[in-house]
C-alpha cells in the first residue's frame, strides 16, 4: 500500500513539474526565420522595460502591461538580475547578494517575488517576456559586481570559476521559478556581453556552455545571447568589427541559441543615424543564412525619435521574410502612481506623439504585411 501511495505522489509531482500540452502549445517558438506566438507565425513588435521587475506596486505593473498589450506590442524584455554586494534597506528591491564567502539569492517580497508578479501579470495579458541573467554594465550590479565579490577583471569574468559557479546558481534559481510559464519568450544569457580586446572564442565558448546549461534546465523555452550584434563581415566601421570580443555570425551557429539579437545606438557608437537600415539588413542576411530569426532587440536615439528611428523599423519590415523576426524599441515609458518612469532620452512614452509614430503606425504596417 505504501508503495502504491508513493507512486501516486510521484506521479502527482511529475504532473505539476511538466507543462501540459496546452501550456506547451502556448510557448513562443521559432518557425524558420520567424517567430510563432500562440500559434501565430508573423513579425512581432515589442519593447524594453528594465525597471518593471523593480516596481513595488502591483497596480503599476498591471498598468504598464495593460498599456503594452493594448498598444499591440507582444514582446517585453526585462531585467532578470539585480545584483548587490552589500545588503540594502528592506524597502529596496534586490535579487542577488554577491559575496566571496556567502552569496544569497533573495526570494523574498523585495526579491524575486517582484519578478514573479511581472510574470504572472504578463501571463494574464498574453505578453511574452525575455528575461536576462546578468548585465555587462555596472547598472544593477552586473559583471562588475561579480568582480568585486570574486576578484579578477571584467574581461576575465567569462572564465572566472567562482563567478561562473554563482552565475549558474542564479540562472537555475530564476529558470526554476518560470520553467512552466507560457509568458517566457526566451532566456537571455546577458545584456550586451562584451570582452574588450579578447579573442572571440572567449564569448563563443562561454555562450556555448551556458546555453547548453540552460537547455539542460529547460527543454522548451527559447534561448538567446543578448549581444549587440557586433562582428559582421558586411562592413568595416566600429560595430562591424570584433574589437569587443563578439562575432555575431560565429555565435549564431551555437546549437542552443535559437535566434540572434542585435542593438543599434548610433550616438553611442559614433556612426551615422542613416546607417541603421544597412545595419538591420546585414543582420537579417546573416540570420537568413544561419536559418534562425533575428530580433532587433534594442534601438534608440536621444532626440527626433520618429524621424530617425522610423526608417530603421521600415528597413526591418522590408526583410521580414528574409531573416528579420521582430523588433523591440528602447525603452517603454509610462505614468505610474509615483509619476513618470525613467527618461534616458530614448524613452517612448505611452500615448505620446512618438508612440503614435513608432508603435501605433508601426503595428499598422506590420498588420499590412
UniProtKB/TrEMBL annotation:
First-listed, main subcellular location of the protein, grouped into a coarse class: secreted
Single annotated GO MF: mannan endo-1,4-beta-mannosidase activity
Signal sequence region: 1-17
Catalytic activity from the UniProt record: Random hydrolysis of (1->4)-beta-D-mannosidic linkages in mannans, galactomannans and glucomannans
GO biological process: mannan catabolic process
Keyword flag Metal-binding: no
Enzyme class: hydrolase
Localization terms from the record: Secreted
Annotated PANTHER family: MANNAN ENDO-1,4-BETA-MANNOSIDASE 1, PTHR31451
Protein name as annotated: Mannan endo-1,4-beta-mannosidase A
Organism: Cercophora scortea
Amino acid at each position: 500500500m505504501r508503495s502504491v501511495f508513493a507512486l501516486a505522489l510521484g506521479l502527482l509531482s511529475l504532473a505539476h513539474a511538466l507543462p501540459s500540452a496546452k501550456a506547451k502549445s502556448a510557448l513562443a517558438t521559432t518557425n524558420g526565420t520567424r517567430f510563432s506566438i500562440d500559434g501565430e507565425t508573423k513579425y512581432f513588435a515589442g519593447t524594453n522595460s528594465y525597471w518593471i521587475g523593480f516596481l513595488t506596486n502591483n497596480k503599476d505593473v498591471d498598468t504598464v502591461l495593460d498599456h503594452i498589450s493594448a498598444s499591440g506590442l507582444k514582446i517585453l524584455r526585462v531585467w532578470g538580475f539585480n545584483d548587490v554586494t552589500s545588503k540594502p534597506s528592506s524597502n529596496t528591491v534586490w535579487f542577488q547578494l554577491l559575496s566571496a564567502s556567502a552569496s544569497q539569492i533573495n526570494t523574498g517580497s523585495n526579491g524575486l517575488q517582484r519578478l514573479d508578479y511581472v510574470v504572472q501579470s504578463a501571463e494574464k495579458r498574453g505578453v511574452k517576456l525575455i528575461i536576462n541573467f546578468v548585465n555587462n554594465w555596472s547598472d544593477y550590479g552586473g559583471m562588475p559586481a561579480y568582480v568585486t565579490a570574486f576578484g579578477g577583471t571584467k574581461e576575465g569574468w567569462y572564465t572566472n570559476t567562482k563567478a561562473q559557479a554563482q552565475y549558474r546558481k542564479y540562472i537555475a534559481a530564476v529558470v526554476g521559478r518560470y520553467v512552466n510559464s507560457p509568458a517566457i519568450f526566451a532566456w537571455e544569457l546577458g545584456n550586451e556581453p562584451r570582452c574588450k580586446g579578447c579573442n572571440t572564442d572567449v564569448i563563443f565558448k562561454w555562450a556555448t556552455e551556458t546555453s547548453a546549461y540552460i537547455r539542460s534546465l529547460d527543454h522548451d523555452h527559447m534561448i538567446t545571447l543578448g549581444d549587440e550584434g557586433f562582428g559582421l563581415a558586411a562592413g568595416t566601421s566600429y560595430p562591424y568589427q570584433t574589437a569587443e570580443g563578439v562575432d555575431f555570425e560565429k555565435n549564431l551557429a551555437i546549437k542552443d541559441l535559437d535566434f540572434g539579437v542585435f542593438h543599434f545606438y548610433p550616438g553611442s557608437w559614433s556612426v551615422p543615424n542613416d546607417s541603421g537600415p544597412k545595419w538591420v539588413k546585414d543582420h537579417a542576411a546573416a540570420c537568413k543564412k544561419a536559418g534562425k530569426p533575428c530580433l532587433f532587440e534594442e534601438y534608440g536615439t536621444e532626440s527626433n525619435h520618429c524621424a530617425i528611428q522610423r526608417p530603421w523599423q521600415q528597413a526591418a519590415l522590408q526583410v521580414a521574410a528574409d531573416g528579420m523576426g521582430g523588433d523591440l524599441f528602447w525603452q517603454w515609458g509610462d505614468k505610474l502612481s509615483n509619476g513618470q518612469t525613467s527618461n534616458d532620452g530614448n524613452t517612448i512614452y505611452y500615448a505620446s506623439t512618438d508612440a503614435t509614430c513608432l508603435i501605433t503606425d508601426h503595428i499598422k504596417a506590420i498588420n499590412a504585411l
